[in-house]
Every structure is written in C-alpha cells, then in structure tokens.
Specification:
The structure is a single chain. The chain has 241 residues and is α/β, with parallel strands linked by helices. The protein contains 11 helices and 5 strands, in the order H-E-H-E-H-E-H-E-E-H-H-H-H-H-H-H. The chain has a 5-stranded mixed beta sheet with strand order 3-2-1-5-4. Helix 3 links the parallel strand 2 and strand 3. The longest helix is centred in the N-terminal third of the chain and has 16 residues.
C-alpha cells in the first residue's frame, strides 16, 4: 500500500457523510464551480486508515463567504451543533485555512463528485498542514491530535514519513521559514521541534537541517538580500495554487 497517495475510499463513515454533503451542495448551489478541498485528519481517514477519526472533517470551500455552507451543514445535521450519525462534524473553512507544502496542489488527488470538483492532498501534505496550526496563548506543546496523526501514519506505513521525507517536505514550505531567518520563531517551528523527538528520537537541528539547506537552495536560484523574497519563492514553486 502506498502510504501517501492511495485513492480515497468514500465508503467510510466520513466519506459517506462528505458525499451526502457534496450532493446537497450541488442541489442547493447549482452555480457553485470552485474546488472543494478535503484536508486534515479526514484525508488520513479516506486515504489510509478508515478507523482514524477526529472530532471534525475539514472542507475548504473556494470562497470566503462560508456562512451558506455552514448553514447547510447545520440543516443536514452535519454541523457542530448536530453531529448527526457519529462523533464528528463537517467544519467548513475558507481558502486560507489549509496551508502545506508549496507543491501540495500539484500532487493532490482530484475527482468530480455530484458535478463538483473535489481535491484531497496527499497524506504527507495533510500532515505538513498540521504543523502550520497556530498555537493558543497558553499552549506549550504540539496539539495532541496532530501528534497522534503522525504516529498513526508511521504505524500503518512502516515508518513513513521518514526523517528524510519530512525534511524534504519541510523545505517545500519556504514561506514558513522566512521569519526564522530574521530571528523570529513561529508556531510552525515550535510544532516541528515538539514533534521531532517523538517521531525520530532526537532533537531537530533547525539551523543545520533546514535553514542552511534552504539558504543554499536560494543561493543557487540567485537570491540576494536586495531581491524580493516572495517573488523568489514563487519562482522556486511555480505550481503553488
């Protein structure tokens, strides 16, 4: 079994609920044409482990006006207040909610269901997306459910993502490291530093394992301090959506 890009199984509890919601969207909003992205733990459930559940299933719609879609989930009993038919609900989010590697879009699974364009990131990109989670003011460690996701994927996949695989994907998040280069520490970095000893039984050396390789890549691309950082990152990741 390919651990990261297996085809989704819609004949699962979360899959069936999402599918019914998609059918309702097609009927209620016949003019809707944007892609709906299924991400987070729902990706792991659909693509790797039907027994892996979370409190919610994340769906990213292609508009910031998410209220009509949230209202539809409540009407169907699939929203947070209803949690119909199980212990999870559908959480509708705007486009900005899911961040991952800069190439997740190009290697995601795409299909059409009920006339709607659906996309699921690879499991590896869903995991990286969890590292982007912002911390609450009183939070002093990675969210337990995010750590559980990494450990479950490792258990089922025979040790994936390996350290080399995760480092490769982390280097595909150059935006997340810009602040680190200026001396600031982000929640993305804190989450990684919490995760590494649990997953790989040793601390993460951010400077040697991430910052130095990324700077080398930028130098090869001709980066200088006078150039626009964002323009260079876009050039390094042309498939970014």
């Amino acid at each position: 079994m390919n651990w990261s890009d297996a085809s989704p199984d819609w004949n699962t509890p979360i899959g069936e609920k999402i599918d019914r919601f998609l059918q309702a969207v097609a009927e209620r909003f016949p003019g809707y044409s944007e892609t709906i992205v299924v991400f987070g733990s729902a990706t792991i459930h659909l693509r790797l482990d039907p027994a892996f559940n979370s409190a919610d299933a994340d769906l990213r719609v292609g508009t910031d006006d998410i209220l009509p879609f949230k209202a539809l989930t409540e009407e169907l009993g699939m929203g947070k207040s209803g949690q119909e038919g199980g212990h999870f609900y559908l959480d509708i989010t705007p486009p900005s909610a899911f961040r991952s590697t800069d190439i997740w879009y190009g290697r995601a699974h795409s299909e059409t269901r009920h006339g709607l364009k659906i996309m699921l990131p690879q499991v590896r990109d869903a995991l990286v997306g969890k590292l982007h989670r912002r911390r609450k003011p009183d939070q002093d460690s990675i969210v337990p459910k995010d750590l559980r996701a990494f450990l479950r994927v490792q258990e089922l996949s025979g040790g994936h993502p390996t350290e080399a695989e995760l480092l490769k994907d982390i280097l595909l998040c150059p935006y997340a490291w810009h602040l680190q280069m200026s001396g600031e520490v982000s929640d993305f970095r804190r989450n990684l530093e919490d995760l590494w000893p649990v997953l790989y039984h040793k601390p993460l050396d951010v400077q040697q394992q991430i910052i130095r390789p990324l700077l080398h890549e930028l130098e090869l691309a001709g980066y200088t301090e006078t150039q626009d950082w964002h323009a260079l990152v876009r050039a390094l990741s042309p498939t970014r959506p």
